[in-house]
Amino acid sequence: MLEASIYHPPPGRDPLHAFIYLVTGLHGYLANREVVPANLRRALNVIALQQRTSFPKTLDAFIRECHRPLEEWYPLKEVPATFSTSQPILVENRLGAEAEAFCMEISEQLDLRSFAVDIPQAALDNLAMVDLLSRLRQQRDVSAQQLYVDVRSCLIEQSYFTRRDFRQLRLEVQQEVKNFIEELQLSADTLPICDRCGLLEWRDNEWHGIKPEYCSDHAENSGRIRWIVNDSEVLRLKRGIHLRTFLPGRAELELFTFAEGMCDQFPEHLLKVERYPGFDSYDLRLTFADTIWAVDIKDHASPDSFIKQVKLLYNQGDLAHDQAFYVIPDGRMEDSYYESVVEKKLKQLPRNLHINSVSVFQQAVQSHIKKLTQPARKSRRKSN
């Protein structure tokens, strides 16, 4: 994780500092090509010093370079760990998915609003979640923890609300959720909802998923699509919340639903299921009759980006646990390179820290519960 202390050298001199100026400066310039933002100028100065003979002669030529994978042209060795160098900064003259995710990642770690950069709106949207978490953590009580769980759960369960849905939330949750939604400014009579990536967006005269790299199965005959009436009742998640909370939350919700179902079915063996314990210290805490598991759910397209985030989960006080798991979608492990990177990392981890796919983790939960039921079955046989 990048530390805020990195970002205090003189403007544009530190390589990591320059990378932030480059990404946000490109965003600002492409939104208004009549002005070259100061932060883009700072980044260009640093890069030009490293490419004295090969630096592009025009800004348009430099923009074309930014459409190539970073590793093919970027001259500075220092690139933030949260950005995969196999990806470009720009795609079709706007920030690519990796660059947009990078802006949201660093916005969660330091207040870019005071950083004098042109921040993408999606990253600004996402700061509302950072603010909520910071405010509730200061309260440090059960009601604040429950409010965070309720709000976060709302934002991963649906990508839009009708006003009736919104009014049915308890008042405290309503007051927080309103910071993450907005009126839908679209004249279409009906709206398509993908059961995987949520409400689609209208762009270039077509319906698109908010993150095509995540989900692109949106043909008219797709079984994933359903249509709703577009009226004044529809409120949508802000774009940054859709990208940074709803989409990652789909994998979280799948495991939450599974674990809560197992708890309902085997309450004597799986005693408690906690979402986002310790104000999101990790995603899921399972208290079995004999042990406690901590679970963090990740979905990174780049295995290298994922591996950089694998670390020991907090293991003190109310967050103490016996086993810890990083859980990733099944599809990631179907990629041979992804699997090889994970397998290599597994050899370096402590014995109580695991990396599992969703289905393998679910099997582990079921097997553990089955093991817990065995003594009871044996004792019944003896009594007969």
Would you write up a description of this structure?
The protein is an alpha+beta fold. It has 14 helices and 15 strands. α4 (97-107) packs parallel to α5 and α5 (121-139) packs antiparallel against α6 (142-157). It is globular and about 75 Å long. The N and C termini lie far apart (58 Å).
Brief characterization of the structure:
The protein is an alpha+beta fold.
Topology:
Blueprint: H1 15-31, H2 38-50, H3 59-65, E1 90-91, E2 94-95, H4 97-107, H5 121-139, H6 142-157, E3 160-162, H7 163-167, H8 171-177, E4 181-183, E5 190-194, E6 198-199, E7 201-203, E8 206-208, E9 225-229, E10 234-237, H9 239-265, E11 270-275, H10 277-280, E12 284-288, E13 292-297, H11 303-308, E14 323-328, H12 330-333, H13 336-346, E15 353-357, H14 358-383
Parallel strand pairs: 13-14, 14-15
Antiparallel strand pairs: 1-2, 3-10, 4-10, 5-6, 5-9, 7-8, 11-12, 12-13
Helix pairs in contact: 1-2, 4-5, 5-6, 5-9, 6-8, 6-9, 9-14
